[in-house]
Write a structure and sequence with these properties.
The chain is an alpha/beta fold. Helices cover 28% and strands 24% of the residues. The chain starts with a helix and ends in a 13-residue tail after the last strand.
């Protein structure tokens, strides 16, 4: 059995105690099996022989996914996820060798936060993403619909309200610009909204707090969560009131903007680096262009985009 096959079997047992050792193990593997990452690490003179802690691991700039195929295994890929973006060219592409594993990790993460899918009606309000056909978000929601309560499906704004008439808890997965157009007159005490971003190019930029206030005013729904995910990660974070948490196999680090190997203390802002061990077959160490901070309780916040970073459809300014 290959290293990645064995590692995927134990991914969901990773915890605070073994996270660092697991990360160094994956770094060693990807250094030797991912040619793009290997060249990047060598350019920084970072090797498994010199890296002793997770803070010494090189994080691959996220823009590499636009110009290179990032793979750590020699096998056919089952799916290529592409970023939404606001331009039709030069979108990020994440080559996924094991789509079933992506779905399994996504389902475990969701159910840890919100409970069993079988007890939830999933109401997907994701126009524009559906049409693209290569969205990781759509692939995840499609998978959730297979396990969710009867009546779960994709809806348009004008037909969604009727679908809320149910004794089952409703969870609306909604792209931000569609949620802004949503008006609900029905009782919504058993409904949660999960907004997934998606404001770029649709309307005047507003903060996440402003977005949630408008949604509440129009719908009466006060349980509003956010999802933090991206094409280049196989894992997601969910957060209420803008306070996100990843599953135990993922860690966010906050780097000093002008020095990628210097990390900020809690409550200080900087660039978000993500260790996503579910990316064992691609690259687990991603330097994003998001600005954020880690709070004392371990949650993290996304504060916006770094200056001059590429515009992406999932971005929501804070």
């Amino acid at each position: 059995m290959s290293f990645t096959s064995k590692f995927k079997k134990r991914l969901f047992f990773i915890n605070e105690t073994n996270f660092n050792d697991s990360s160094l193990e994956v770094f060693d593997y990807q250094y030797h099996h991912n040619s793009v990452y290997n060249h990047f690490c060598n350019s920084l003179r970072k090797t498994p022989g010199t890296v002793r802690t997770i803070y010494e691991i090189p994080f691959l700039p996220i823009e590499f996914f636009r110009s290179h195929v990032i793979l750590s295994v020699d096998r056919d890929v089952e799916k290529i996820f592409k970023s939404s973006g606001t331009t039709s060219h030069n979108r990020s592409a994440h080559h996924i060798p094991d789509l079933k594993f992506y779905h399994k990790a996504a389902k475990k993460t969701f159910e840890h936060v919100f409970g069993e899918l079988s007890s939830k009606k999933i109401i997907a309000l994701l126009p524009s993403y559906v049409e693209q056909g290569d969205s990781s978000l759509i692939s995840m929601v499609d998978h959730f619909l297979n396990y969710a309560a009867p009546g779960s499906d994709y809806f348009l704004e004008r037909t969604l309200s009727k679908s809320l008439k149910s004794n089952t808890e409703n969870i609306i997965f909604g792209v931000s610009h569609a949620l802004l157009n949503l008006e609900i007159s029905e009782s919504t005490s058993n409904t949660i909204i999960i907004e997934t971003g998606g404001m770029k190019g649709w309307a005047k930029e507003i903060t996440r707090t402003e977005l949630h206030q408008i949604i509440f005013q129009k719908t009466g729904i006060n349980k509003i969560w956010s999802e933090y995910g991206m094409t280049e990660l196989q894992s997601q974070a969910y957060g209420e009131n803008g306070l996100f948490r990843f599953p135990k196999w993922v860690k966010a680090l906050i780097r000093e903007v002008n020095d990628p190997f210097t990390y900020q203390e809690k409550s200080k802002s900087g660039g978000i680096n993500v260790i996503d061990l579910a990316n064992v077959e691609t690259c687990s160490f991603i330097e994003t262009k998001d600005l954020g901070k880690i709070n004392e309780d371990g949650s993290f916040e996304v504060l916006g985009r770094l200056d001059n970073s590429d515009i992406r459809g999932c971005n929501l300014m804070v």
